[in-house]
Amino acid sequence: VRNHKGEIFWYVANFTKIDKEIAQSPQIDRIMEGIANGEFLLHYQPQVDISRGMVIGMEALIRWQHPEEGLLFPGSFMPLVENSDLATPVGKFVMHSALVQARLWRSQGLDFRVGINISPRHLENGHFIEDLIACLQHFPEVPPDMIDLEIVESAALENLDKVVPVMEEALRLGIRFTLDDFGTGHSSLTYLQKLPAKTIKIDQSFVRNIHENINDLALVEAITSLSNTFQREVTAEGVESLQTGTILAQIGCHQMQGYAISRPMPADKVASWVRGWSPDPLWQKATRTIWT
Ligand code: C2E
Ligand code: MG
Ligand code: MG
Ligand code: MG
């Protein structure tokens, strides 16, 4: 919705706060328009725990069903979003949509977590907690510990003095955090030490080649054991083959996400996918070798 000055107002139904975001470029303008027109949607990718043989979560991944250009992936528009005033309104749209979905899944007896990617700008906007509380009140059916906020270690997250208190307040509300793309930032170990994230997600660039690259394997093993030392759970992303899954199970990394399990899928495909999923027998065998 626009006001008389041509500024765009963004409003998420039933949120207590109304955000005003001023358009700064035609592209930003178009993204706001797309959100208002319902062109943005979320796909979901399963996260599984193979030692328990369970689907533990679904990560929400934003897509833009562009009327002319077709289905666009976040790589083509999220950099602009994350570096502009769109970070908050788009973040609120994602949060709201993911919680609508989580509420629906829970009503169907599906009780996995929902993973939501959060931009640093959104986290640091000064009213993140206020909005989060409003959100939790709006979705009382979704327990806060079913909400897993994924934050990427990046230069944008440099201001730890600002970020850590926000995270700690969210933790008090029962929210979980995952440190996404772990290992790609310039100060990973500082983040590991200072950010209260329950889960470390090893970046896919380290995971992809562990079946043929001994250095990558050593890195993934080291991050897994480091995470254990810090009492964090560890997830490997970018698991593209069954063989990679088996190796991960052997080295004690039991949470996985990747094309070998499933590509991201539309929300309405998730329930039947979950019903049909079972872990690869080799993975479970590899797990048992280590743990029993
Ligand atoms: P991410 O959070 O690290 O998500 C993982 C990305 O890797 C996703 O790409 C996913 O589709 C892809 N992927 C998953 N498994 C595999 C695999 O086995 N092999 C390969 N090659 N790729 C795999 P996608 O959906 O294009 O998203 C890219 C990035 O965009 C995300 O990285 C995240 O940083 C950002 N993003 C996505 N949705 C949102 C959102 O709603 N909000 C924010 N702030 N960022 C988002
Ligand atoms: Mg993520
Ligand atoms: Mg990632
Ligand atoms: Mg990423």
UniProtKB/TrEMBL annotation:
Going by the entry's taxonomy, the superkingdom of the source organism is recorded as Bacteria
Q: Which residues form the EAL domain?
A: 24-278
The molecule here is called: Putative PAS/PAC sensor-containing diguanylate cyclase/phosphodiesterase
Q: What part of the entire protein does this chain span? A: 98 to 389 of 510
